[in-house]
Amino acid sequence: MTSRRSVVKRPSISASDNVILMSFEFEPKGFDLHYGLEFDQITAEVVLGHVELRPEILQPYGLVHGGVFASISESLASVGTAVGVFPAGNIAVGQSNYTSFLRPITEGTIHGKATRLSAGRTTWLWDVEITDDQGRLCAATRMTIAVRPRQAR
Q1: Residue 67 lies in domain
Q2: What is the pTM assigned to this prediction?
Q3: What does the alpha-carbon distance between residue 119 and residue 84 come to, in Å, rounded to a whole number?
Q4: Residue 64: CB partners within 8 Å, gap ≥ 6?
Q5: Annotated active-site positions, please?
Q6: pLDDT (tens digit per residue) in 19-71
Q7: Is residue 69 situated within a structural domain?
């Protein structure tokens, strides 16, 4: 299996974005790489990504497995939070993932858009919309990300 890897380098920012430019690159790693997540845009306010549909991410009835939708949501929200909290010496980890499945996806591309709702000192809250190629809402997630101090290795 060959995979296309996307790398989002240094998100574009402006003073009004309230985003801190990161000195490292974001690219799918670990499980995200396994199911095929590609980042399209990363800021501390909005994160966009997509996954090309393939047989490995389908459940037995030919629909995208719900865990893929939940995984996309958690990754988009975690990376967006990381952009905002890493410069202050913190990390971002998933705390709560509530995903509702609304419509199946059986072909094409899964599109995800995470929009930050709140950026607190210890938690960030995101809404994530998962859509199909026709722009139809297929899943909706409310994602809470915990902000914790980065530990020295």
Answers
A1: 23-149
A2: 0.83
A3: 9
A4: 53, 57, 58, 104, 105, 106, 110
A5: 74
A6: 433 434 567 788 999 999 999 999 999 999 999 999 999 999 999 999 999 99
A7: yes
